Amino acid sequence: MDIEKLARKDVQALTPYMSARRLGGQGDVWLNANESPFNNEYTINGAGLNRYSECQPDELIRAYADYAGVRPEQVLTSRGADESIELLIRTFCEAGEDSILFCPPTYGMYAISAETAGVERKIVPLTPEWQLNIAEIENNLDGVKLVFVCSPNNPTGNLIERKDIEALLEMTAGRALVVMDEAYIDFCPEASTVDLLVRYPNLAILRTMSKAFALAGLRCGFTIANQQVIQLMQKVIAPYPVPVPVTEIACQALSEAGLARMKYQVLDLSANRAYLQAGLSMLPGVQVFDGYANYLLVKFDDAELLFTALWDNGIILRRSPIEGCIRISIGNREECEKTLTFIRQQLA
């Protein structure tokens, strides 16, 4: 019996998202997954593990609402922002009927989450300046329920222009939700769209503790939206999505001391990003694009040859879907220095 034939046809044909861990590699410098280099310590009580957790732990919801500057009823927590993507698609899209729209180059999970749910994908590429093509989006909105926009965008690192985000929200009012993926917004909080929630009921915002909070292994994310959107998502989410230790650690990270530490570490990473950008920009045949998150997109004359040399020498970076480009996560100063030195030697 061929078990594969029992699977849905779209799943049989699906190419899974190739995360950093799936791609593997061996080395001592890991700058391929946009993780934080800071390994912060936490204490876990461990009491009450014989009982199920709350679906939406009140302490955690209130802590993140305070941090984000919204009301608790505007927050839903999930297993990373990836689960939020799936929840939004399952909540608002009918399989075989509705569509999502996204604008590559961007995060690959929007497409995969829709595909696994049997939801069509509409693609409107970003402009050559990596901004929204508003006119083309408007021409492709029929049947679209969700428009995904990432800012800072992964993998390009740039911010999407505020006026275009507002134009998109106006254009989709009463027709679709605009989902702003703000996974990296803690590195540039002034660019958040959270203030637009009061004007646009069709706005939803994705957040995560994986990046600036240095908690990639915790798998804790959030959706921020108006109360009606959150209530609908609560109908779809699993009964017990937040393990008790996740709540304990996340609340410590969102405490006054935890937030102070996060902001200090963001400053440190921003300084390392500036160091790496300045050093790479001085090399021949190298173009470094401005970045507002914890990574840089860099174009090289022979990116594949350089990537392989780095990989073979234990410096693990990330290939980019953008031709000639490599994405470099920002690590600690030692990791950045080692990476820059190796690239400098290769290009000499």
Folded structure, characterized:
The protein has 348 residues and is of the alpha/beta class. It folds into two domains: 3-38 and 258-347, Aspartate Aminotransferase, domain 1, CATH 3.90.1150.10; 58-255, Type I PLP-dependent aspartate aminotransferase-like (Major domain) (Aspartate Aminotransferase, domain 2), CATH 3.40.640. It has helices at 9-12, 20-23, 58-68, 80-92, 109-116, 134-139, 162-172, 227-234, 244-253, 256-281, 303-312, 333-347; strands at residues 29-30, 75-78, 99-102, 120-123, 144-150, 177-181, 203-208, 221-225, 286-288, 295-300, 315-316, 318-319, 325-329. Helix 10 (256-281) packs parallel to helix 12 (333-347). The longest helix is centred in the last third of the chain and has 26 residues, at 256-281. The mean pLDDT is 95.
β-strand percent reads 15-25%
CATH class of the largest domain: Alpha Beta
What letter string, H or E per element, gives the SSE order?
HHEHEHEHEHEHEEEHHHEEHEEEH
Count of separate DSSP helical elements: 12
Strand arrangement within the widest β-sheet reads: 2-8-7-6-5-3-4
Mean pLDDT over all positions: 95
Name the helicity range.
25-40%
CATH homologous superfamily caption of the largest domain: Type I PLP-dependent aspartate aminotransferase-like (Major domain)
Radius of gyration: 20 Å
How many discrete structural domains? Answer: 2
Helix and strand composition category: alpha/beta
The CATH level-2 architecture of the largest domain is identified as: 3-Layer(aba) Sandwich
Largest sheet: 7 strands, mixed
| CATH topology grouping of the largest domain | Aspartate Aminotransferase, domain 2
Span between termini:
57 Å
Low-pLDDT runs: none
Shape: globular
Question: Could you tell me the number of beta strands?
Answer: 13
Family: Belongs to the class-II pyridoxal-phosphate-dependent aminotransferase family. Histidinol-phosphate aminotransferase subfamily.
Subunit structure: Homodimer.
Organism: Enterovibrio norvegicus FF-454
Catalytic activity: L-histidinol phosphate + 2-oxoglutarate = 3-(imidazol-4-yl)-2-oxopropyl phosphate + L-glutamate
